[in-house]
Amino acid sequence: MNLRVTAALVVLLPAALWKMYQLCKAPRDRSLLAVTVCVACAAVSFCLGLSSVRLPVDAALGSGMAQLISTVLLLDTAYWLMCFYLNSSADRQHARRRTRHEGQLVGLIVAGITWATLKTSGQARGSLYWTPDVHVSGATALFAVADLYLIYALGTALRWTCRFARMASQATATSLRLTALALSLMTAAVALRPLTAVISRFGADPRSGAACAGTILLALALPLLAVGLNYPSIVSRLTALRLWWHHRESYRKLRPLWTTLHRAFPENALRRTAGSPRREALCVRSIHRRYYRRVIECRDGLVTVSPYLSILGVGEDASPQAVARMLPTALRACATDTTGASPAVGMALPADNGLDSDAQQLVAMSQALRDEH
Question: d(Cα 255, Cα 32) in Å, to the nearest integer?
Answer without folding.
Answer: 43
